[in-house]
Specification:
Helix 6 links the parallel strand 4 and strand 5. This protein has 18 helices and 13 strands. Helix 17 packs across helix 18. By secondary structure, the protein is an alpha/beta fold. Helices cover 41% and strands 14% of the residues.
Length: 439
Amino acid sequence: MDHQNLELIENIRQQFDNTPFPRIPLEQSPQDNSEFLYLHNLVTAYYFRNRRVINTEGKVILDAGCGTGYKSLVLAIANPGAKIVGIDLSEESVRLAEQRLQYHGVANAKFYALKIEELPSLGLQFDYINADEVLYLLPDAVAGLQAMKSVLSPDGIIRTNLHSSNGRAGVFRAQAAFKAMGLMNGSPGELEIEIVRETMEALQDEVGLKAFTWNSERAQDEGWIMANYLLVGDKGCSIPEVFGMLRGADLEFISMVAWRRWELMDLFKDPDDLPPFLAMSLPEASLEERLHLFDLLHPLHRLFDFWCGNPDRTQAFVPVAEWTQAQWREARVHLHPQLRTSQIREDLSNCIDSQTAFEISRYIIVPTLAPVAIDSTMAACLLPLWEGPQSVVSLMQQWLQIRSQIGFNLESVSDETVFEEVKELLIRLEVFLYLLLEP
């Protein structure tokens, strides 16, 4: 590695030694944050890729660039029985991460002050790697991806992200301005943070940089200023560059983590009535081309946040919407682990008692574009899932029993009708991975 990159890495290390990130209080727990746990649960990524439910017991999970360990704590809670390993360039961050997990009673966790490129020295293989908000800081992101691939189990999955040049354009302009002011020479600290704050507040509100990037309500948050305006090593890229990096590391793109929020057709007023050129070309576009066009047309996302893994390891599956009746009648239904809480079950019971719709998306909104609500009567047939996985047949029987109790006209109800009603509900919720179905 050349002298310039070594100096950059040292500046990044010093920055996070001086101002560890994230600055989340030690005692704060993500235990009740169902959405955060959903995103960091190996079950979510593995099911999305393979349409199979995986048991996290005994799995080995890496938090690469663990910082002060909050995401490591999230990973530990989201993946019961897994061993958590965290690495970070900053020794101070590692110390704080160890302290955090000890405070929350997580015993099966180990932390190392280590560069991502040095991962093979641990002699471990990982079932899941979380490299959140770190890859874009590396002088060579492909080398970082290659290092993670070298310690990834054959069926393992990496969740990582890179900054969008388009989605973060305003922040990159701000960084360039503060570089020109000499604030990012070496490792910025409290003095530089205060200068940024004073400069931005001094600008007129209509000045472009302030209007598009500044948030006066967050001005006192030093971590926010450091992670945006003074982030040493920060850089952006395009979708083609992301896919080029994955090819360079021999990794396969699986999906954006918030996959539903990257649907190109949602950008058009009427997807069924497109201009002729688009109507002919878009169906032929590759996933990479569609994501790239989305980012160009609507640079909504700061991050390209995605799952990837070893190529050609996706298990073959038939989408549930294409299952035969025989497959449905032999299938088992799992409630996503992050919905299997006593509080959510109690909320559902209260909706049933009050005959109000059960808004399941209020706990996990990220895979949706709009609230997802279920009729409370129909939702009642899902209650057994809080006890454990159920067969589709048993849920049909549960729904038939509920219909009987509430006085539906049973004479006109056939098994086929009950089957179709339950199937429709399961398909609807499986799309969002609220329910996980295995044939």
